[in-house]
């Protein structure tokens, strides 16, 4: 015998029929009545089986597994915490679906002060049957009319009304104000609503009505309203239980256990929708022929089988079916029924409550039965009372088994053997059947002996709780508006991008002509991409990106082999004296030569120097100005090759033959050009950004000659330094620029490249924090630190394979304590910033390829772009956004992007090889 049995719930005691309850029972016919009511008895073992099976069904749904039978649904509700009591404001609450055919509108004022309550005003409207079963639009129009009618008599403004919608049907929620009806339950069956967002349907109806401007900010299940409106007692109330027309419960689950959510911390309120529990093994044995008949005749046969044994909509109907059965058997009412008794729905929950109440006495029962057109004898009243009690006791016990399953779940998920918990209860069954709660409480004690449960009746039928959720939702919606406003200037239209493209074209043309332009359009003296006949061993240097590298490049008939080593350039060297910088470079070369066994050999050297240089030949380049993080003194205006040669001379031991100086864009183009002859553009999106391309020599004013081509280093990073980009520049761009070592310079680069995107994001985050939108408005020291937010974080945060919780982990490593709402907003900030960067870059590439196409007078140009740079390569969406923008803005160019695998060093060696080949040829 199980423990419940031993505690006395077996053998019919659990489902008391009159004799066990000590009620006076009529002596004759008692066997037939007993036999009938016996079916409503549920044993302890059966209750325990329901508890276990329902728990299993809940856990299965949490894991995201769908069983063969439609089980409980476990729907996340977007409510993450129980109220703090600090919420305040005036809210309109519209309740639909909790209480039968009625719709309730409330005006709730939250004071934000604990213990200080303002009584809500409310009005109830009866929904006509034809509206409950008619077109969805008619139902929502009806709701909108009720709202207006209610508000008409209140002294309220028409503006800024915030509404919480209590909609008590199973819904897939995807936000606090977005909820799709899965299926109607309880007596509703309106067409064209299932599968639709009910918030939108309500909004549309309010708009059609046109009388009030109301913002529907939250949608809430009645169980959630019940839980959230509960006055916090000793501890928070973390379960909401409703037994009204239907039945359901919600509770606070650990978010990490909810597979459909991408969360590892905190809790989330789950609406169980236990009404749809339907395990045949557990429910079959407790179902009666009356349950089967009721289900069969209902609007939704086969669905909500558990609810149909508990919910108030069905209790009266079950009683009616039993009474009809007993009357037809001649046991009751002298064998007579009445047309009213025979019609579906004629016994309501209120009737059952009245007849069941022993204190009301037989006279009350008589009166109710007479209203049903019956002519009861004295004994009939007592039997009817027994029937009501049997039906309701079973309902309370089944509800207790379900609640016990929730308590077991809480015990398990919180790893607490002894659980102390408050359950908020709501619904007319609790309000009108005092015995329901006592049977429920008793049964829960037996089924969940380690739980100390206090039952707290809900306030204002859950309306206050709905207002609480609405208050939170309204705050979040206001935050979202501020976020949108902040990010709006980053969202560029096609027209704006086309304008960037056009301005870039103009600046290119002017730069080539030697007119004033922010694009310098520097000739590189590279006139051809490699032809494959180059051979030899070359040294290469690669300075100006993330890494400084020294390379040995062997170009053979079998291809190109590279050995290289990365050396660091400490910030103090990059920003120290020029002499120091070049001495350091030569030291690294010497070290490399020693390690490679090349000491003493004078190999031809190509120097990738990724800064703007005015070249007069391949081996001459005057540094115009430093960019990115470099600022070594006495270099600007000097020939970099000379500076390197002087350092070599100072270091007497080495002999080096510097043949070519090459920008990284050129190195990249050459390196990719070795594989693909169509590669005539080199693009870098890394620490900095820049482009080079093959221009017709006749267009280059500063170099003699009219035939052939020359590679032009556009130095597009400086685009906009003449103020032409000011329309697009945001306050955050201005802050980043002002704090940089070269204010006013490289404005295009500062909107695009890796050195700056993290900083832009950091400035936006600071702003949003100051508005109270992020991090609860708390500024942290870490976030105020320059460069703390690396651009690689954007790539990591935006990676599709990363869950939101990993995003949060990245940010928490930065000392930013955030909620999941914060994490989502940070993600959106990153996306806006990197999207703008990629689109601007795409607009630039579109300008370049269109120019090449027009230069060549082609209808359509097929061209490849060699690309390198950490941002382009590591960011998950950057490359596709660039390509999409180019397709949009340069539709007549078929552009292939080739990622350079070997860095620009290889390209520099190839330029050197071409130069050596040409030099040899000239000598011959
Ligand atoms: C590589 C080069 O091609 O790309 C570097 O070898 C260059 O010198 C770099 O500057 C750009 O990328 P990042 O991200 O290192 O600046
Ligand atoms: C039904 C609904 C559910 C609601 C319950 C109580 O079961 O499907 O959403 O909470 O009734 O009203
Ligand atoms: C900066 C440099 C430029 C270089 C680019 C990419 O913009 O000025 O020469 O190509 O960064 O590294």
UniProtKB/TrEMBL annotation:
It is found in: Mitochondrion outer membrane. Residues 239-472, 681-914 form the Hexokinase C-terminal domain. Its EC number is 2.7.1.1. Residues 1-28 are annotated as: Disordered. GO terms for cellular component: cytosol; mitochondrial outer membrane; mitochondrion. Transmembrane segments: none annotated. InterPro entries: ATPase_NBD, Hexokinase, Hexokinase_BS, Hexokinase_C, Hexokinase_N. Pathway: Carbohydrate degradation; glycolysis; D-glyceraldehyde 3-phosphate and glycerone phosphate from D-glucose: step 1/4; Carbohydrate metabolism; hexose metabolism. This is Hexokinase-3. It comes from Bos taurus. The gene is HK3.
